[in-house]
Design a protein that fits this description.
The complex is a heterodimer of chains A (302) and B (334). Chain A has 15 helices and no strands. By secondary structure, chain A is mainly α. Chain A has one domain: Orthogonal Bundle (MetI-like fold), CATH 1.10.3720. In chain A, helix 2 packs across helix 14 and helix 10 runs antiparallel to helix 11. Chain A is globular and about 65 Å long. The two termini of chain A are 18 Å apart. Chain B is of the alpha/beta class and 334 residues long. In chain B, helix 2 runs antiparallel to helix 12. The longest helix of chain B has 21 residues. The chains are: A mainly alpha (302), B alpha/beta (334). Chains A and B meet through helix 7, helix 12 and helix 13 of A and strand 6 and helix 8 of B.
Chain lengths: 302, 334
């Protein structure tokens, strides 16, 4: 701790801190404060009635449900994609690696329109899926999941990738020489190192999905109680010049998101600590590579 | 070589700056709704020429297009629009309530300040396989309807009021039967498009639904864009007269000193030239002579207005589109 204090890279602690606080306040805190101040024009009872109306409740379920599903899908498949991109050599690897960032760059409306055309029952994929299994994707909540999965893919891959790059192959070899099966190597050696970063990626993807509007509205169908997301309901209120009503929904989303992200952060902290403890137990003498990796991932997350 | 071309660019830039300063010309900003692009693209040069001929003054007209409600909110928040041309009186009324537009803006120009109108029509697949002729054919089982979101889009609101008004005007019609009609209508509506143009794309390009309800003027645009081979336009016997209003933003023109030009710009919409331009773009002109000249484009439809059937936009919004209004009640699960 002491050595940290004397060897700071950024000079002028006070200046840096002040700058960071002003920057965060201007960009994040003041707009959010304004939002909450606006909503406080209502009495608590009025706020509650608006926040818990049938349409609102249905829209929270749809928004958070589809976001959770999309983030989970990406946590699983995104991990595989990242692993493949780091560990395997194959022709066109650079190309596929660049592809991952595409959802970041593409305007979301373009993504929405393209996915809708693709998954509508007249589209390339849609006619196949509906013809083969009688399953509708576009204009149902499944369409929302598809759009959100597309939009949030880079978050998981890009957070997990550097951590995987840091895991040396020697670690796996060491595990193998000590008699670990493939499954044990993955479960007990590799995953604990990647897990905190994976959680970060999951949290990023999830929060991005909650706020996503542009791509979802084209593919969702937007039917009340069925496929109407909260951001759309907010726009609907703004279209009626009902600023207060819109603010109420925004505050509810903010609060739910905050608590979900907080619990994900706690989970992350807990898992990092647990594995650090485990590594020490296994080999009290060494610094323990898995523990180190967990630390790295934490650093990446922060 | 490189230095020379750089110098040329600099000189050209300086000259451009100089000329802009010497011949500073009045500019007008027309803030408008999404699908009015083509109308004003044709109208602006006509106005500029006519105004130059009359006063010798050159005006430049700039356009801004997006969803109408978003546009007026931008104007209320400080976007310096000299004039607004909208697809719904509510949007201009919002600016009047904020004090940017005169409270009696509908009286400032003829025809309640709406220089042209349109009406809501049906677009069906070629040969009209579901034999859709009237509003009641839309609610038959197995017919699917594509419309934009009734709460979020002007186009959707016009559709909603057209359907409601028509049901109201049937023999024995009242609010209850109208609500029942709309209930059946939405049973056949598998999705709400996020905007007027997206509803068109969903119907034409993605092949969703049997019928698209939209503006008559939009129908023509679809024909130009996608060809006339795949679908046809059906005129219901009765529909709503969609009045598309305009207004001067007093606060802005007084500040910028552009009232004279803004007034002339909007007045010119009622001139023969302006009315013909509307008709060319399949908007129904108010001028009876121009209407007659283009009569073959505008089949007869019995129309009702928001004022005579719903008591004006304020009441219509309150009854149908506000939270808990008739639209929300349809989607209320008891």
């Amino acid at each position: 701790m002491k050595s940290n204090r004397s060897h700071r890279v950024l000079p002028g602690f006070n200046l840096s801190l002040g700058y960071a606080l002003v920057y965060l306040s201007l960009l994040v805190l003041i707009p959010l404060g304004g939002l909450i101040a606006k909503s406080s024009e209502l009495s608590l009872a009025e706020f509650w009635t608006l926040a818990t109306s049938q349409r609102s409740m249905a829209s929270y379920r749809i928004t958070f449900g589809t976001s959770l599903l999309a983030a989970s899908i990406n946590a699983f498949f995104g991990l595989i994609v990242a692993w493949v991109l780091v560990r395997y050599e194959f022709p066109g690897r650079r190309f596929f690696d660049a592809l991952v960032d595409l959802p970041f760059a593409l305007p979301t409306a373009v993504a929405g329109i393209t996915l809708t055309t693709l998954y509508a029952n007249t589209g390339w994929l849609g006619q196949f899926i509906e013809g083969q299994w009688g399953f509708k994707v576009a204009f149902t909540p499944w369409g929302i999941v598809v759009a959100l999965t597309f939009v949030t893919l880079p978050f998981v891959v890009r957070t997990v990738q550097p951590v995987i790059e840091d895991i040396e192959t020697e670690v796996e070899e060491a595990a193998a020489t000590l008699g670990a099966t493939r499954w044990q190597t993955f479960w007990r050696v590799l995953l604990p190192g990647v897990f905190p970063a994976l959680l970060t990626g999951f949290a990023l993807a999830f929060s991005r999905a909650i706020g996503e509007f542009g791509s979802v509205i084209f593919i969702a169908g937007n039917i009340p109680l069925v496929s109407e997301i909260t951001p759309l309901l907010i726009i609907a209120k703004l279209e009626q010049y009902d600023l207060i009503g819109a603010t109420v929904l925004a505050v509810v989303m903010l609060v739910i998101s905050f608590f979900l992200l907080l619990s994900i952060n706690l989970l992350q902290w807990w898992s990092a600590n647990r594995h650090r403890g485990e590594a020490r137990e296994l080999d009290p003498g060494s610094t323990g590579t898995p523990g180190n990796n967990a630390g790295n991932a934490q650093g990446a997350a922060a | 070589m490189k230095a020379a071309s750089l110098a040329r660019v600099l000189v050209a830039g300086a000259l451009a700056g100089l000329s802009a300063a010497t011949f500073a010309q009045t500019s007008l900003l027309n803030v408008s709704y999404d699908v009015a692009r083509d109308v004003f693209k044709d109208y602006n040069p006509k106005f500029v020429t006519a105004y130059k001929a009359k006063t010798g003054e050159t005006v430049e007209v700039k356009q801004s297009h997006a969803g109408s409600t978003r546009q007026v909110r931008a104007v209320a928040d400080g976007l310096e629009a000299d004039v607004v041309t909208m697809n719904q009186a509510t949007d201009i009324q919002f600016l009047a309530d904020k004090g940017l537009v005169a409270a009696d803006w509908t009286k400032k120009f003829p025809n309640d300040a709406a220089p042209y109108t349109s009406t809501m029509v049906f677009i069906v697949r070629k040969g009209n396989p579901k034999a859709i002729k009237d509003w009641n054919d839309l609610i038959k089982t197995g017919t699917t309807i594509i419309i934009p979101h009734p709460k979020n889009t002007g186009n959707g609101r016009w559709t909603y009021l057209a359907a409601w008004g028509n049901a109201l005007k049937q023999p024995g019609g009242n609010d209850k039967t109208a609500a029942a009609y709309l209930g059946a209508f939405f049973k056949n509506t598998p999705l709400f498009a996020p905007g007027g143009r997206d509803a068109t794309t969903t119907f034409i390009q993605r092949g969703q639904g049997d019928v698209l309800v939209t503006f008559e003027s939009e129908a023509e645009l679809i024909a130009r864009e996608f060809g006339r081979g795949g679908f046809e336009v059906v005129y219901p016997p009765q529909s709503i007269l969609t009045e598309l209003p305009v207004a001067i933003v007093d606060k802005v023109v007084d500040k910028r000193g552009t009232r004279k030009q803004a007034q002339a710009y909007l007045e010119y919409l009622w001139s023969k030239d302006g009315q013909e331009n509307a008709a060319e773009n399949y908007l129904r002109p108010r001028d009876p002579e121009v209407f007659k000249k283009y009569a073959d484009r505008f089949p007869t439809v019995k129309t009702f207005t928001v004022d005579d059937t719903f008591g004006g936009w304020a009441k219509a919004t309150e009854a149908h589109f506000k939270d808990g209004g008739s639209f929300d009640q349809i989607y209320q699960v008891k």
